[in-house]
Amino acid sequence: MLSKRLTTVAICLAAITASTTQLAHAEIKITNSDGAAYDFFGISTAISGNKAIAAASFKNNFTGSAYIFDTNTGIELHKLTAPDANANDVFGGSVDISGNFAAVGATGKHSAYLFDATTGSELHTLNASDVTPSDGFGVSVATTTNYTIVGASSSNFFTGAAYIFDNNTGNELHKLTASDGNTGDNFGQVTDISGNTAIVAAPNASAAYLFDVSSGNELFKLTASDFDPTAFSSFGRSVSISGNVAIVGDADNNSTGAAYLYDVNTGNEITKLTASDGNTSHRFGSSVSISGNYAIVGAQNADGNVNSTGAAYVFDLSTGNEIAKLTASDGTSYQSFGDSVGIDNSTVIIGAQFTHIPGNDYQGAAYIYAIPEPASLSLLAIGSLLLIKRRK
């Protein structure tokens, strides 16, 4: 009888595990409704609440466009384009969304655009007061409900800069530069913003910087504790910030890649994240995003159902433990799944810009997943065991 009861418990726990795996990989695949070959849809992605944004910056001779989707249904809600669109604008090379605001960068136009995420209407065209055509303004964007940050990593001989704008007025508030910036640092290549703190990476300097959004003052310089100046590094290739935690990706760390967590209040490194199955050239850290108790890290060349399709890994911030590996159910080799990622609470979006859609080579795609809440799963397990006990 005891053996039978233990077998029943094992079966129920196995079912819970299977349910967890299935829930973690519940997948919605999205593509642009007007998709064409070589759109590279999914090159940039972001998510906020029940809306996600994904861009196809190569579309129509690099004119570019971005699209807003309902994360619950995968339905396309709006197509965003620049009001002054032209070929080679690369509109959508960077995107972000927060609440009712969506931001889109267009480096070829030396501009960024702010949209109403609910209606799809343009609110402001953002331009820096001292921008020049060679500054790369718009290479990165990030937005909150109050502010938008735009990177210009090529300014001043690639020393780089970033600019803070007021969302309500579209006015420039601050120009950010690194206190120890040098030619070629590419400060501003990637940016993010949360509340009153912004993070700006300088990947060629293997550093990232935290700034006070209200004052524009630099707060901390972030570097990796195990940085090796003799080894190739891409620390700062990707960054994200949420509340009191920031994350910085290094897709070339020890040839396999890594991501680092930092305390925003002190600038101290908290821990280093690596993939449980990391391998050479997987490029773990290609992209990062953080929200609440979760971080997601993309590895664009990791193995999934086929070799080198790409993957994304979800981590519990309270423990630093990897809790899920996400791969496309229809993955193909060199799909670049994980080259862009976004997370909001327990919902994620992952871009795969090299995805082939029937009839359209490299149209691109993005995938939306729901990550199971650990507490909910624990309650499920406890409830199942109590049910077994009652039936003894």
Describe the structure.
The longest helix is centred in the N-terminal third of the chain and has 23 residues, at 2-24. This protein has one domain (27-375): Integrin alpha, N-terminal (Methylamine Dehydrogenase, Chain H, 7 Propeller). A 4-stranded antiparallel beta sheet has the order 1-28-27-26, with no helix packed on it. The termini are close together. The chain has helices spanning 2-24, 59-62, 155-158, 374-390, and strands spanning 27-30, 45-48, 51-56, 65-70, 76-80, 91-98, 101-106, 111-116, 122-126, 137-143, 147-152, 161-166, 172-176, 191-194, 197-202, 207-212, 218-222, 238-242, 245-250, 258-263, 269-273, 284-291, 294-299, 311-316, 321-326, 337-344, 347-352, 365-370. It has 4 helices and 28 strands.
Q: What is the count of DSSP helices, taking H or I runs of 4+ residues? A: 4
Mean pLDDT: 89
Detail the poorly predicted runs.
1-25, 375-392
- Class from secondary-structure proportions: mainly beta
**What's the CATH class label?**
Mainly Beta
Write down the Rg: 21 Å
Tell me the number of structural domains: 1
CATH architecture: 7 Propeller
Largest sheet, described in full?
4 strands, antiparallel
State the end-to-end distance: 10 Å
Quick one: CATH superfamily? Integrin alpha, N-terminal
What is the helical fraction, as a range of percent? 10-25%
Number of strands: 28
List the strand order in the largest sheet: 1-28-27-26
Give the overall form. Answer: globular
